[in-house]
Amino acid sequence: MSDAAQPTAAEVRAAAEAVKTALDRHLAAVERRSGEDDPAVYEAFNELAAAAEEYDELLYDRHDEVTPFEIPGSDSDVLPPYQGPEEANALSVLIRRDYAVAEPQRLLAQAQRVADLDEDTTDESSAAAAAGSSVHAALGVLFGEFEPDEIASRHKEFGLEEGDSTLWVTAADEPAEPGEWLDAPFDQADPHRVVCRFDVSAVFDDEPDDDGVDADVHVRVDPDAVAVLEELDDVDEGDDADDADDADDADDAEEADALDVDDDRSPLDADR
Questions:
Q1: Long-range contacts of range 112-115, CB-CB < 8 Å, 24 or more positions apart?
Q2: Using one digit for the tens of pLDDT, what is the confidence trace for 174-186?
Q3: DSSP class of residue 167?
Q4: What spans are recorded as compositionally biased (Acidic residues) (predicted)?
């Protein structure tokens, strides 16, 4: 790095002071926390992390030294505190899947095959002729023919290679009006309304897999959502127990009816 691009000693000192201030604010927020997911603590945590990262970078650029701080990245397992409705009236499921075109010729061939099998395509100079002419046209044909879930399960067949993917389940106050968000479907994605999310990435491959779950899958669930699911499970178990008791009562009644029939028979009937 050139001398002109290096931070000054005063800038490094100011960054160190910012870390101290952020540290004090974080401790104060923790001492005043109102609950496990206090937004003030979360905000102070982020400010401290940003200040520490800034100081670490300036310290390295100026003095070629590093700090012992480990700054958490975006792959943290902790969701931001949930700030959505306690009883959601609507849900949005946001999905993103990335692919690389690993085998363009396979992709073009599959798109051409789909176009040739289309009974509605009678003009060879139109869709059928264009399907295998470019990757852009081939992708339009394949994603127009197959559902995204089917493409995800058959991506190798289509010459695609999976990248990262994520699924967010977010809570909403009311269902959206028809056509309301179609022009910008992801602009209103709010991490603070995420009930649960499921991430798939190669960055998770090296993590231990102690619970039998695939190592490249990260599941992040809001604690409040877990409590709701557990409550629903308790209700279901109670219903199952009631059903089992009802079944046992029915069996006992059938056995009693059978005994009554036997007791009503006369000695003559018994000899027959």
A1: 112/138, 114/141, 114/142, 114/145, 115/141
A2: 898 999 999 998 8
A3: E
A4: 230-263
